[in-house]
Amino acid sequence: MKLSVLQQNGNTRRSNSFRGNGPFDSVVDGFKSPAALFWLVLHGLCCLISLVMGFRFSRLIIFLLFSTNNNTSPSVTNHIFTTTRPLLTSTPTNVAAEGLTSQTPPSTSTTQNPHTALNRTTPISTGSRVVVGRHGILIRPWPHPDPVEVMKAHRIMERVQREQRIQYGIKNPRPLIVITPTYVRTFQTLHLTGLMHSLMLAPYDLTWIVVEAGGITNETASLLAKTGLRTIHIGFDQRMPIAWEDRHRLEARMRLRALGVVREQKLDGIVVFADDSNMHSMELFDEIHSVKWIGAVSVGILAHSGNPDESSTQKQDDENSPLPVQGPACNSSGNLVGWHTFNSLPYAEKSAIYIGDSATVLPRKLEWAGFVLNSRLVWKEAEGLPDWVKDVDTLERDGGDLESPLSLLKDASVVEPLGSCGRKVLLWWLRVEARADSKFPPGWIIDSPLEITVPAKRTPWPDATPEFLSVEKVGGTQEHIEKHPTKTSRVSRSKHGRHKKKRESKIVDKQVSRRRSEEK
Amino acid sequence: MRNSRLVLIILLVYAFISRIGAEDVLEDDPVGRLKVYVYDLPSKYNEDFVQKDPRCLTHMFAAEIYMHQFLLTSPVRTLNPEEADWFYTPVYTTCDLTTGGHPMIYRSPRIMRSAISLISSNWPYWNRTEGADHFFLVPHDFGACFHYEEETAIERGILPLLQRATLVQTFGQRNHVCMMEGSIIIPPYAPPQRLQSHLVPPNTPRSIFVYYRGIFYDIGNDPQGGYYARGVRASLWENFKNNLLFDISYEHPRTYYEDLQRAVFCLCPLGWAPWSPRLVEALIFGCIPVIIADDIVLPFADVIPWEEIGVFVAEKDVLKLDTILTALPPAELMSKKQKLLANPSMKRAMIFSEPSQLGDAFHQILNGLARKLPHDKTIYLNSSQKLLNWTTGPVEDQLPAWW
C-alpha cells in the first residue's frame, strides 16, 4: 500500500515537473516535497528494518493495524521483539512463551504466516485455556544443570534411600564386630583393601579388630587409617609361620585374642570372623542380624592351585562336582542336622605346604569365617547366657583344638543356620598368597628410582639418537613412548602421499625405502 | 433427654464412620449396588476382531475386551433386562488394526453406529431412554471423537448417537469437546502379568532422580516439531538431555520396569493425547509421577487423590522442571512416597487384573457407575420424543458397516 502511495507521489512529482514550473506549481511542489520526502524516508526505514528482521515488515504492520482481536496485539508485538516466527501462528490466549526465546527448526517464509495467523485467529474454541496447534519449543538460554540444584537432588535421593532402608531393611540394626587376623606380606594390601571396602559399604555400626602377627606395623596402620571406621589394631607377638598348618593355628589363636578384647571392653554386637583374603557379599551383613547366639552361613570354597597345568587336569575330574561349599546342612523342616565340610581327599598329595607353594591351598574342615557369634557369648557374665557355651578363658588355657568356633560350644546342635538354611552362599574363601620371600615396595609407593631396569624388546629404537639409548629413569621410557607415535604418523603420511601424487612417487618411494633400510 | 442423647451418639458414630477417607471408597464392592445387562451382539462386533488380530489383547486399548469378559462372568450381570440399571454394548471399536498395529479409527464410528442401530431395533431399551442408561467403553486417544489427531477429533466431536450415554474412556481433559460431564475416566490397559514379573526387591535403593523413556519428536507426523505434545516433550529433551539427574532417552531398554523401580520421579508428559500408560507404570512401581499435561483429568479422579501422590507441572514450566523438582520440600516428598507405597489399593485400582480382584479397575468402573444411580426420572422418554439425530455427523460415518 505504501509502495503504491509512494509511486503515486513519485508520478505526481514527475508529472508536475514535466508540466513546467509555474509559481503556484512550485509552491505546491515545495509543499508536496516534504511529504514525499517523509514517505521516502519512511519507506527507506521500513526497507532497512525488513533487511534486519529478514521478513517483510510492511505486511506485519498491516496485520497489526487491521487485526481485530485485542489479545493478539500485545502478544504479537512481544513476538516481534523476540523474533519468534511460529508463535505468530499460535493464537490468542496465553500460550507458550511471552518474552522467552524459542527455537524452531527452519520454517517456511514468514510472508505466509500473517495470513495463516489470520486464518487461525478464529480459534478452535474449546473453551479451555489449552490451545491446540503449533507451540514453540521452550528452551531456556542456559540448559545446563545448576550445581546447587544437583546437590539438592542428591539430598532428596539420600533421604528416599534412607526411608527405604528404614522401611524394607533391617528393622533394628545391631552393631558389628569384625575380627581379622593379618600380617604384612605382598598380598596384604590387595586382600585388606577388598575387605576394607566391603566393611565401609556395610550400613551398620562397625568395630574392626585387626590382629597383626609380628606386632603392629606402619604398613597395616596406614591402610587402616584410610577407612574411617572404628578400628582396634592389636599386635600379636609371634611372627606368621611359613607352613599353612601353622598359619591356620596361629590365626585361630589370634582370633581368640581378639575375642579376649571383646570380652575386656564388653563390646556389644555380632562378631564376624572376616579373613582378609575372603570376599563377602553385602547380603551377609544383612543376613547375620537374625542370629540369636551363634549362627553358621555357607562359605563357597575356591580351592585354587597356583600351577596352571594342574588346574586343567583337575577340571576334568571336577566337571560333574559343583563348587564345594562349607556350611550347615538342614533337613526339609529347616533344622540343622549336620555340616557340609570340605572334602580334602582328592587333593591329598597335591596340597600346598608352604605359603606361596604352587599346589592347591586347602581350607580347614570348617572355616572360622562361616560362623557368627553374639558378642555376649564371650563376656564374663552376661544375662541369659545359655549353658552350652564354654568360657573363652578356659579354651585358651586348655590349648585345645581351635579349629572352628564349634569348640566354644559343648553342644554343636544349637547353631542357627542362616542364609535360608545354608542354601545361600554369602561369602567365598580363597587363599592366594605370594611366596614368603617375595618383595614389594613398602606402602606401594615407588619413591626412589627403580633399581632394576629391563631393556625394551627392540633396542636400539630405529631413528633414535644415541642419547636416548641409555635408559636411566622411568621418565626416560615415557619419552620413548611419546616419540613412537609421531614416527608412525610420519610414515603414514608418506604413504598417503604416494597414493595421491604419482608424480612425486619416485621421490617418496626413495624416502620410504631409505626408512625401511634404517629400520633393518 | 435420653432420646436426644441417643440421637447425638448416633450422629457422632455416623460422622466418625463417614470420615473414613476416600481410600475406602476404592474398596467398595459393587455387587448388589447395580445390575448390568450385557447385550448379546453377534461376534462380528467383538470376537471376530480379536481372532483376526490377537494384538488387540495386549495393546493399551484392550480395556474394552477385558471389560466384556469380566462382565460376562460377574455377579453384577443380570440376564433379565427389565431389572437392569445399566446396559452394556460389547463392541470393540479399537480392535480393527492395521498391519502396523494401529486402530483403523476411520472405521470405528461406523462400527459403533451399526451396533447402536442393532440394539435399538432388536431391543426396546435404547429407544426408551435414547441411551441414557447405557454405557460404552471407548478407550481410544480422544474417546468417542474417534480420531487420533486432536484438531480433527475436536471438529468431529463426540459421536452424536452417544451424546446421552455414559462413556467410559481413557481421555480426560477439562473443558474439552471429547469429554462429557458424566464420563468415567479409566487408566489405559497394562498387562498385569508382565508388570508383576519384573519386580525387584523393595530395598533396592532408588538412585535415579528423574526417569523417562519415549520419543521426543514425532518425525513421521510432525517433522517440524512444536505440534507433537504441544512441544513439551521436545522441550524436555532440549533442556535436560545434558543433565545427569535426568535419565531421559528414546532408547528401548530391556530393563524398563526394573529401572522404574530405581527411580524417584517418573515423567508422564502428554503425547498426541494427554493420557499415557506411564502413569499406571509409575504407580505400580512406586515412583512419583510427574504429570505434565494441562487440564488433564486423571483416572478415577473422584476416588484417587492424585494431588497427594503426584506432582503436577504446568506445560509452560517444563523448562524449569529441575528447579521445580528440587525445590519440593523433602517432607512433602516423603509423604507422597508413603501414600503411594503404603496404599496398595491405589495400585490395585490401576490394574485390570486377571482374575479380577476386589478393588481393581473393573470394580472401580462399576463403582463409578453405581455412584451415578439411581437414574433421573427424566431420562425416560415417551415414544414421541426423539432427542438424537441419526443423520448428523460426517458423511463417512453414515456409511453402513462393510461386513
From TrEMBL, chain A:
EC number: 2.4.-.-
Broad class of the protein's primary localization: Golgi
InterPro entries assigned to the protein according to its UniProt record, in alphabetical order: Glyco_trans_43 (IPR005027), Nucleotide-diphossugar_trans (IPR029044)
Listed Low complexity bias regions: 101-112
Cell compartments where the protein resides: Golgi apparatus membrane
Entry membrane topology: Single-pass type II membrane protein
Protein name from the UniProt record: Glycosyltransferases
Higher taxonomy: Eukaryota, Viridiplantae, Streptophyta, Embryophyta, Tracheophyta
Automatic annotation (TrEMBL), chain B:
GO MF, one example: glucuronoxylan glucuronosyltransferase activity
Location of the Exostosin GT47 domain: 33-328
Membrane topology: Single-pass type II membrane protein
Signal peptide from the UniProt entry: 1-22
Pfam hit, one: Exostosin_GT47
GO cellular component: Golgi membrane
Top-rank lineage group of the source organism: Eukaryota
GO terms (BP aspect): glucuronoxylan biosynthetic process; plant-type secondary cell wall biogenesis
Compartments, record wording: Golgi apparatus membrane
Chief location: Golgi
Keywords linked to the UniProt accession: Glycosyltransferase, Golgi apparatus, Signal, Signal-anchor, Transferase, Transmembrane
Coiled-coil residue windows: none
Family: Belongs to the glycosyltransferase 47 family.
Stated name of the protein: Exostosin GT47 domain-containing protein
